[in-house]
Specification:
This protein is an alpha/beta fold. The protein has five helices and eight strands. Strand 5 and strand 6 form a beta hairpin. The chain is globular.
């Protein structure tokens, strides 16, 4: 759970396939703070003592069942920071560090999900970057749709 005023550093992985699509999860992300659902890449908080790369490998496995190595993810490809405003007037800030991994397909394995993820993840699907630019759904973090539109895989 994110606390009011908290800064939350995360690592995220842009999974993409041969068709140029990216895999996203529709999540509430702590619905008790009143934020509407948004489409996110697999990923999450960086634990104390973890590097962003280590967190990306761990989070990718926990959220998708995909096991990969730090070498396969390589160097970060993007980093962005921002603020999510809550419905009650509070907020939290974030810094998201992104890595990328090309996959041929994905049979999502949710066995590593936490209780919060089981509650929060509503849907998952593959998106074409141009679809993300034109959807009325929220896509997070701020600027992800534009980044993907400018940096096709």
């Amino acid at each position: 759970m994110v606390s009011p005023g908290q800064h939350r550093p995360t690592s995220r992985v842009i999974l993409h396939n041969d068709a140029g699509e990216v895999f996203l999860l529709l999540t509430h992300f702590d619905p008790e703070v009143g934020l509407p659902p948004r489409w996110l890449t697999p990923g999450g908080g960086i634990d104390k003592g973890e590097t962003a790369l280590d967190a990306a490998v761990r989070e990718l496995f926990e959220e998708t069942g995909l096991q990969t190595s730090p070498e396969a993810l390589g160097e970060q490809i993007w980093q962005t920071s921002g603020r999510w405003d809550w419905s009650d007037g509070n907020f939290h800030t974030y810094t998201d560090t992104f890595f990328q991994l090309k996959v041929e397909g994905l049979n999502l394995d949710a066995s590593g999900w936490t209780d919060d993820e089981r509650r929060d993840v509503l849907e998952f699907r593959w998106w074409k970057p141009e679809e993300l630019l034109h959807t009325s759904d929220l896509v997070g973090p701020h600027g992800l749709a534009e980044f993907l539109g400018q940096n096709p895989f």
